[in-house]
Design brief:
The complex is a heterotetramer of chains A (329), B (415), C (237) and D (292).
Chain A (H helix, E strand, L loop, with lengths): L2 H18 L4 H27 L6 H18 L4 H24 L3 H21 L1 H4 L5 E2 L5 E2 L2 E2 L2 H23 L2 H11 L1 H6 L4 H27 L1 E2 L6 H14 L5 H10 L2 H4 L6 H16 L3 H14 L8 H8 L4
Antiparallel strand pairs in A: 1-4, 2-3
Helix pairs in contact in A: 1-7, 2-7, 2-8, 2-10, 2-11, 2-12, 3-4, 3-5, 3-10, 4-5, 4-10, 8-10, 11-12, 11-15, 12-15
Chain B lengths: L1 H10 L4 H18 L13 E7 L6 H20 L8 E7 L4 H13 L5 E3 L4 H14 L3 E3 L15 E3 L4 H15 L4 E7 L2 H16 L3 E8 L7 H9 L4 E5 L4 H11 L7 E3 L4 H7 L7 E4 L10 H14 L5 H20 L4 H10 L2 E2 L6 E2 L9 E12 L3 E12 L6 H4 L2
Parallel strand pairs in B: 1-2, 1-3, 3-4, 4-5, 6-7, 6-8, 8-9, 9-10
Antiparallel strand pairs in B: 10-13, 11-12, 13-14
Helix pairs in contact in B: 1-2, 3-12, 4-5, 6-7, 12-13
Chain C lengths: L3 E10 L2 E11 L4 E5 L6 H8 L7 E6 L2 E2 L5 H7 L1 E3 L12 H9 L9 H10 L15 H13 L5 E5 L7 H14 L4 E5 L3 H7 L2 E6 L2 E6 L1 H6 L1 H11 L2
Parallel strand pairs in C: 3-8, 3-9, 6-7, 7-8
Antiparallel strand pairs in C: 1-2, 1-4, 4-5, 9-10
Classes of the chains: A mainly alpha (329), B alpha/beta (415), C alpha/beta (237), D mainly alpha (292).
Chain lengths: 329, 415, 237, 292
């Protein structure tokens, strides 16, 4: 099965799943959450997997968009479909503005800064209760409507599937354009990329803007799907959760974050009976994966496959080389 | 769980990715099939009630304390034959103190466990998140411990709340202080949390009407750790009373730093208190006043109430506070309501809640819900007599007040 | 007009002076060598000219325009490029992907496919196109580094110890390649090995402790007493 | 100056010093580990909390606070050795090890917070250590508890010793050499792995101590872990990784900012102000104030 077949199979599965799960609204809800996380993870992967930056203020940007979307629909009476793009672009601009100083920094330093920016945003969400209703949060957020009919049940789930599939395909398309090639060059060696004539900071800003859009669109759908948002819906733990899906599945590939999200995102929902034990379980899982297969599940599979192939003449494709090396410098 | 651990051990071997995948799938499969029924030897299928509470996350302690009280009562009820000839089963689910998880858990309880009603949260955030679900899905919802007013805002149909609303606490506190010292100078120090904001809103509404003089009003962000400077400012303002409410351990910091700076315990008012908070304040706080809805030092405890206190203390090495009391009362309220409804039907149960006239088994305080699901409001003010380390404390009741939820414009004060 | 004109640049790190008042001029088509002991400021000099470091003072002109403070990607577009002492290629990508990365700059004068093939062939990398660059030998990586720079049609390439770490036979081959390179662009080369300088350079600049102590044709420099005493005497040891 | 003004002034000084010293101590621990081993320990807040909780338990079991602190320090060293042996050393040679470390320590954070929720979280919602010494000293009109004076003295003393040791002790000099350039240090015959281990132990122990000092000066709950992690990382960024002097100065500035801004504005503004100050700093001096 080649990449194209796999992509079609996955897209069909994602679009069919809501109808399969229709009988169980709980599983369908968890599926919807997974789809939103998938959108987020493929956005996070663009920056973390392809540019090599780890943005921990990701959830904060999603939060800005979600609050803005709710304000626009509730107070200005806009429809969700108008409010979401406006809120998303606005939030992405704010995100870039906040991220600008740290985008000049390298690798891990950027991550630390984004951590602090995320803390500022979380604080701001509680500090401006006029828009956010403080830590009490906003509840009973209306689902979006199509031609006067509110999206509900299976049709909402299916909408999320479409959004996620489009998000993943868009990411897959971006990484093979010249822009995506520049991202990869920057990830591989930003100093060398600069010497090769690539404006590193400018390309990072572009990437950050795109990624902020992913975060923001996901935030708007999240708010209307769950129906409730509070500052804790968009705190640093949310960012870390999304990032973990990418790192766990295998960054720098399109399929990796899908694997990671499908495995990790449902855990907190499906293991509710296990109480605090699930924290320990996921912690152990994270450590084991990092120590034993640092390139994530997909990276590990690829590494093994290429090891097996190494007996034959060396014909490692570039993509595999990327995923097994996959360094964010 | 054992199986999962073994899978993980296997996972460090050669077939790692496959094993990990299998472990995760197995774990999720196990969990979704694991509806944790503690079967009780009784006739009839159990009546299931979803108890969606905070077993992990910042509210760990409250959720678990609550469940301790809940379990005592539900065991008693089932030993005595259950209700409608069927045992009462509380399906306890962890919402991780996260609103999203709370919504998901509600859905899980509704769809997979087919519960007749929801209950459980001890935190206003999660309570509000569940509120949205319950009202939308027409699922009766009895909130044991969450004081945020909007849970019973006009138009509420399925939600019923046992704890009085927080704006009312502030309102009654102002009237209490007016009685105690007319024209008193009052300072306020509190953390930035929904609950504290609501109490302050109620207090500020009533303070001018009660001719109280607010001389300091200091709000702390969450995560604050020091209040020495603010304590000094408060002392310099020379108040008669200091109202203090800190989130988590910060409450203790506020208390200690005020006392360190020479504020007398008799001047300190805690709008609410739980056992562990009083232990934290310690013996040096003897004389301080706190508001509560249940306390082992109450004058009017019933025989069942005294019995509950003794047994809870024996099991948990501390006397129960109002959180445990409300959760202890929850199964009894469900029992009464189900008996009144005559069947485990959601609509009938909702309708029974609106007609219910009963009393807290522990203190005899009446329970009846108004059209929005709010209860006739009340509060006790207690004074600390002595605190004996981490084991027990003595307190005496100095004031009791009752009022109607409509006495103040609660839903305008707190949005 | 000089291709590169460096007037009185200085650079300090904390209390340490890495470069003091260094002047260098280079004509179009010239091959200029720079020698000096370890820590004499050679790499700092290249770092400043190629925009990796900002000088504390002085003037930098490339093709007559000031380039002080310009970013490396900007210089690349102007036709000024460099290699590194520790070879620098995209080790995780295949050779072909490295080549594609070099073409990302998208200059109007980017070489046509035929010319690309000619360059690849000249640097003898045809058979390694699909190998990961990190798996190449050091010599191959150095050739790939050269290839990537040449694909961008530089007018000046600054080489930081191009034969460092190579075996004796490879050094000979590399010098031959660099001789041919002269026809394609101007070369600035930092070297430790006198032999490279002697065979390649038209002119040599000598740095000592951050200062220029000599500037002239290799033959003269190698006779210069100060250079021989202070540098060559030890470097050949 | 009136007594009221003096009171507020003295309280500002005391708050600034104590908060600053504890911030500085924890940040010093974090900065040593990150600057040297390149290990961004996401679980340092959990370490901090663990020490405080362990001391609380020992004090509850009848130990004096002083004995509890010493006991926990030894346990802390033992625990760090185990963690170093089980997790940290596996990544010494991984090229992207800062990212790998971050993930591993995030996993550790998850595990530890799960364990805390299942143990201490069930026992109480807030914790206080009994004071080391009783009594109050009047500083003008300002009553300062002797306990907090002792906490301040210990924190400043440890910082001073740390500073001196890094500068003058041979181990300290080796540590600094590895900070600056590990390849060069290795060439000069420094056992880099031993230094890694030493700095991990040293940094962790300092964080453990910081947790206990915090518990002595303040009450704490389980949420303090995350607040402290973020604050320590922010101080490290502003001060420059690996710079103990940076941690000291910036920690103190953060402490005093909290104290002073809350007089003129609000405590919330204080928290905002230092986070925003950090962002502004990044604009003009991204490598931190005290790095070269």
């Amino acid at each position: 099965m080649n990449g194209r077949h796999l992509a079609i199979a996955l897209a069909v599965a994602a679009l069919a799943a809501p109808f399969v799960l229709e009988g169980n609204r709980f599983l369908a809800f968890v599926f919807g959450i997974v789809m939103i996380n998938l959108l987020w993870a493929s956005g996070m992967n663009l920056l973390y997997g392809f540019v090599g930056l780890m943005p921990l203020m990701f959830a904060g940007i999603a939060g800005i968009a979600a609050y803005a979307m709710v304000a626009l629909t509730r107070e200005a009476g806009w429809s969700f479909w108008l409010a979401t793009p406006v809120a998303a672009v606005g939030a992405a601009f704010v995100g870039v503005l906040l991220g600008l100083p740290s985008l000049r920094l390298k690798g891990f330093y950027f991550t630390l800064c984004s951590l602090v920016i995320q803390s500022v945003l979380t604080l701001a969400f509680t500090f401006f209760p006029r828009f956010t209703n403080g830590d009490t949060g906003l509840n009973q957020i209306e689902p979006p409507a199509w031609g006067g009919v509110q999206l509900a049940g299976v049709w909402f789930d299916a909408t999320l599937s479409v959004v996620a599939v489009v998000g993943v395909l868009l990411a897959a398309w971006i990484v093979q354009t010249r822009l995506g090639q520049r991202f990869i060059a920057i990830r591989e060696d930003d100093v060398l990329a600069e010497v090769m004539g690539i404006d590193v900071v400018r390309n990072r800003i572009i990437a950050f803007f795109i990624v902020s859009l992913y975060a923001a669109v996901g935030g708007c759908f999240y708010a209307s799907y769950v129906g409730f948002i509070s500052p804790r819906s968009f705190d640093v733990l949310t960012s870390l959760g999304i990032w973990l899906c990418v790192a766990f599945g295998g960054r720098g590939t399109i399929i990796g974050p899908i694997i990671g999200t499908v495995i990790l995102a449902p855990i907190p929902y499906l293991l509710q009976e296990l109480q605090a034990f699930k924290d320990v379980l996921s912690g152990v899982l994270i450590i084991v994966v990092t120590l034993v297969m640092p390139a994530g599940i997909h990276g590990e599979i690829m590494r093994r496959r290429s090891l097996r192939r190494a007996a034959a003449p060396p014909t490692v494709s570039a993509a595999e080389a990327v995923s097994s090396n996959g360094g964010a410098r | 769980m054992k199986q999962i651990i073994e899978m993980n051990r296997a996972a460090s071997g050669r077939a790692l990715p496959v094993a990990t995948l299998a472990a995760v799938c197995l774990a999720s499969g196990l969990a979704s099939g694991l509806a944790s029924p503690v079967a009780r030897a009784q006739a009839g299928a159990p009546i299931k009630i979803g108890f969606n509470t905070e077993l992990t996350g910042p509210w760990t302690f409250f959720g678990n304390s609550c469940v301790a009280g809940l379990k005592m009562a539900s065991e008693e009820i089932n030993k005595a034959g259950g209700v409608l000839g069927r045992p009462l089963e509380f399906v306890v689910v962890d919402n991780q103190t996260s609103p999203t998880q709370a919504v998901a858990a509600s859905r899980n309880l509704d769809v997979n466990d087919k519960v007749v009603a929801l209950s459980g949260p001890t935190n206003s955030d999660t309570a509000l998140a569940i509120y949205g679900y319950a009202e939308q899905q027409k699922l009766p919802y009895l909130v044991p411990v969450a004081a945020f007013p909007q849970l019973t805002k006009p138009g509420t149909r399925y939600t019923f709340r046992i704890e009085p609303n927080a704006a009312g606490w502030g309102y009654s506190l102002a009237r209490f202080l007016e009685e105690r010292k007319p024209g008193a100078r009052v300072a306020m120090m509190y953390s930035d949390a929904a609950l504290m904001r609501a109490v302050v809103a109620g207090f500020k509404y009533q303070a001018p009407r009660s001719k109280l003089n607010i001389v300091a009003d200091i709000l702390f962000p969450q995560g604050s750790s020091d209040a020495t400077v603010q304590a000094a400012q408060v002392r310099a303002a020379n108040p008669d009373y200091v109202i203090l409410m800190g989130a988590g351990a910060f409450d203790n910091v506020l208390n200690n730093q005020l006392i360190d700076l020479g504020v007398k315990p008799e001047q300190m008012i805690h709008p609410f208190a739980m056992t562990t908070m009083i232990f934290g304040w310690g013996q040096r706080s003897a004389g301080a006043i706190y508001g509560t809805f249940f306390d082992h030092g109450l004058d009017g405890l019933t025989r069942e109430g005294k019995d509950f206190i003794t047994r809870f203390d024996a099991a948990n090495s501390r006397p129960p506070s109002y959180v445990e009391n409300y959760c202890y009362n929850t199964p009894y309220i469900f029992k009464e309501a189900l008996a009144l409804a005559g069947s485990a039907d959601r609509e009938k149960l909702r309708e029974a809640f609106t007609r219910l006239k009963t009393r807290e088994v522990t203190s005899g305080i009446p329970i009846a819900f108004d059209k929005n699901g709010a209860r006739k409001e009340y509060i006790y003010f207690m004074q600390i007599v002595s605190v004996d380390g981490k084991r027990t404390y003595k307190s005496r009741q100095i004031h009791y007040a009752e009022w109607d939820a409509d006495d103040i414009p609660v839903y305008e004060l707190v949005k | 007009m000089s291709l590169l004109q460096v007037d009185g640049i200085s650079r300090h790190f904390g209390g340490v002076t890495a470069l003091r008042n260094v002047d260098v001029r280079m004509r179009e088509g010239e091959t200029l060598g720079m020698i000096g002991p370890n820590g004499s400021g050679k790499t700092t000099f290249v770092n400043i000219v190629t925009g990796h470091l900002v000088p504390d003072g002085g003037r930098l002109l490339f093709k007559g325009t000031s380039i002080a403070g310009a970013a490396p990607h900007h210089l690349a577009a102007l036709g000024l490029t460099r290699t590194y002492q520790a070879v620098r290629v995209f080790g995780g990508l295949s050779v072909r992907k490295n080549i594609e990365a070099a073409l990302l700059l998208g200059l109007s004068g980017a070489p046509a496919a035929a010319e690309q093939d000619e360059l690849v062939h000249w640097l003898r990398l045809d058979h390694r196109l699909s190998s990961p660059a990190g798996s190449l030998t050091l010599f191959e990586q150095r050739r790939l580094e050269l290839l990537m720079r040449l694909l961008q049609r530089p007018s000046l390439i600054m080489l930081d110890e191009p034969v460092g770490g190579l075996a004796v036979t490879e050094v000979r081959e590399m010098i031959a390649l660099l001789q041919e390179l002269k026809a394609r662009c101007s070369i600035f080369v930092i070297e430790h090995t006198m032999r490279v300088i002697r065979e390649l350079a038209d002119r040599v600049v000598v740095l000592m402790a951050g200062e220029k102590i000599a500037d002239g044709p290799p033959a003269d420099i190698l006779r210069d007493k100060r250079v021989v005493e202070q540098y060559l005497g030890t470097a050949h040891a | 100056m009136t007594d009221a003004t003096l009171l507020v002034l003295a309280s500002t000084l005391s708050t600034g010093l104590i908060l600053g010293a504890i911030f500085a101590l924890v940040a010093a621990g974090v900065t040593i580990v990150y600057g040297c081993v390149w290990l961004p320990n996401a679980s340092n807040g959990q370490f901090f909390l663990l020490a405080a909780l362990a001391a609380w338990s020992l004090a509850g079991a009848g130990w004096s606070s002083a004995a509890a602190i010493i006991g926990v320090l030894f346990m802390g060293i033992a625990l760090s050795l185990v963690i170093e042996w089980v997790l940290v050393r596996r990544l010494y040679d991984v090229p992207e090890r800062n990212v790998a470390y971050f993930v591993v320590t995030l996993g550790l954070t998850q595990i530890m917070s799960g364990i805390f929720a299942m143990s201490w979280g069930l026992w109480s919602d807030q914790f206080t250590l009994p004071p080391l010494v009783d009594g109050i000293t009047m500083i003008g009109p300002f009553p300062m508890t002797n306990n907090r004076i002792v906490v301040l003295a210990i924190a400043l003393g440890v910082l001073a010793v740390l500073f001196a040791a890094l500068r003058y002790h041979p181990y300290g000099r080796a540590l600094r050499a590895v900070f600056q350039n590990r390849e060069a240090a290795a060439l000069r015959g420094v056992n880099v792995r031993a230094i890694y281990r030493l700095s991990f132990l040293l940094g962790s122990s300092i964080i453990f101590l910081g947790g206990m000092l915090f518990a002595l000066a303040y009450s704490f709950d389980l949420t303090v872990a995350w607040t402290m992690s973020v604050t320590a990382f922010a101080i490290m960024i502003v001060g420059g990784p690996g710079s103990v002097l940076g941690a000291l100065v910036v920690g103190m500035v953060f402490g005093f900012t909290q104290a002073i801004v809350s007089i003129f504005a609000s405590p919330t503004a204080a928290t905002f102000s230092y986070l925003l100050a950090m962002l502004a700093m990044l604009l003009f001096r991204p490598s931190g104030l005290f790095n070269r």
